[in-house]
Design a protein that fits this description.
Structural class: alpha+beta
Number of strands: 18
Shape: rod-shaped
Organism: Chilo suppressalis (Asiatic rice borer moth)
Radius of gyration: 32 Å
Largest sheet: 6 strands, mixed
Bound molecules: 2-acetamido-2-deoxy-beta-D-glucopyranose
Order of helices and strands: HEEEEEEEEEEEEEEEEEEH
CATH superfamily of the largest domain: Immunoglobulins
Oligomer: single chain
Helix content: 10-25%
Protein name: Ig-like domain-containing protein
Domain Ig-like: 34-129, 136-226
Length: 257
C-alpha cells in the first residue's frame, strides 16, 4: 500500500517536471492588407529547457526559434509571409506587410529539450481584409435617356471580403427593392479581390444626384454622379438615328443604280 502511494506520488511528480504548456497564442483576429502583425506564443516550460518554437500557417512552417543554433532564428519562404527577424524572438514573431495571402490558421508549437522532447501547441485564425481606396465605379449614367425611360445604372466595388453596396438618390437611400438588382459578386482580375455589383432601375427625373456607397465594416467608399435628362439630349440622339437611316438608304440606292 505504502509503495503504491509512493509510486503514484513519484509519477505525478515526474509528470509535472516533464510537462509543458502553451498558455496561449495571441493572433490578431482581423487585420487590413499592408499592416503588420505581432503573433505571440506564451509557454511555460515548467523547469525544462526550450528546444524549439515553430510557427505554422495552415500547416506550413514559416518560422522557427532554436536556442542551441547560431543564429537561433530561421524563416522559411511561405507565400504571403514576411517575417521581421529583428522584432521576432522565442515568444513572438513579427509579420510585415500583410497581404490577402497572409490570412489563415496560425499555430505555435513548442518543444522541450531531451530527454522528454515533450511538445505542446496552440492555434488561432487571422483574417486579412482589403478595401482599396478607390471609389466604386458607376456605369450606365452617361448615355442619353429619353423622357419616361427608367434609369438603368450599375455600381461595382472591389474588396475582400465583398463590400455591401447601397444606392442613394438625391441623398435618400433607395429601399424600394424592386428598383435594386443584386448582381452578386465575382472574383476580380487581380489581387484576390471580389467585385460586388448592384444595379439600379428606377424612374428618372430631369436632374438626379446618384450616389453609390460601398461599406465594409467601419470603412466606406462613395461615388456621386449627376444625371441630367432633358429634351435637348433626346433630340440629339433622335437626329443621329435619322442620319444613320438616311445613310443606309443612300447606299442601297447606289447599288440599284
Ligand atoms: C450591369 O451589370 C450587369 C452584370 O454585369 C450587366 O449584365 C448589365 O448590362 C449592366 N448594366 C449596365 C447599365 O451597365
Ligand atoms: C441639358 O440642358 C442644358 C441646358 O438647359 C444643357 O446645358 C445640357 O448640355 C443638356 N444636357 C444634355 C445631356 O444634353
Amino acid at each position: 500500500m505504502k509503495r503504491t502511494v509512493l509510486i503514484l506520488y513519484f509519477l505525478s511528480y515526474y509528470k509535472v517536471t516533464i510537462c509543458l504548456r502553451v498558455v496561449g497564442v495571441t493572433v490578431p483576429a482581423l487585420k487590413q492588407r499592408g499592416e503588420a502583425a505581432t503573433l505571440g506564443c506564451d509557454f511555460d516550460l515548467e523547469g525544462g529547457k526550450l528546444y524549439s518554437v515553430k510557427w505554422y500557417r495552415d500547416n506550413e512552417e514559416f518560422y522557427r526559434f532554436m536556442p542551441r543554433l547560431r543564429p537561433p532564428q530561421h524563416a522559411h519562404k511561405v507565400d504571403g509571409i514576411k517575417v521581421d527577424m529583428d522584432k521576432s524572438s522565442a515568444r513572438r514573431v513579427h509579420l510585415k506587410e500583410l497581404s490577402l495571402k497572409s490570412r489563415g490558421l496560425y499555430r505555435c508549437e513548442v518543444s522541450k529539450e531531451a530527454p522528454s522532447f515533450h511538445s505542446a501547441q496552440a492555434e488561432a485564425f487571422m483574417e486579412v481584409n482589403y478595401f482599396p481606396r478607390e471609389s466604386p465605379r458607376v456605369s450606365g449614367h452617361e448615355r442619353p435617356y429619353s423622357p419616361g425611360e427608367p434609369l438603368d445604372v450599375n455600381c461595382s466595388a472591389r474588396s475582400f471580403p465583398p463590400a455591401e453596396l447601397q444606392w442613394h438618390i438625391d441623398g435618400q437611400k433607395v429601399s424600394e427593392r424592386s428598383w435594386l438588382i443584386p448582381y452578386g459578386t465575382q472574383p476580380a482580375a487581380s489581387q484576390g479581390l471580389m467585385v460586388s455589383t448592384l444595379g439600379l432601375r428606377a424612374p428618372a427625373h430631369p436632374l438626379m444626384q446618384l450616389s453609390c456607397i460601398a461599406l465594409m465594416g467601419t470603412l466606406r467608399r462613395e461615388r456621386t454622379v449627376i444625371v441630367e435628362i432633358n429634351s435637348s439630349s433626346t433630340k440629339k440622339a433622335f437626329g443621329l438615328t435619322v442620319l444613320t437611316l438616311l445613310g443606309v438608304n443612300i447606299r442601297f440606292y447606289d447599288k440599284i443604280l
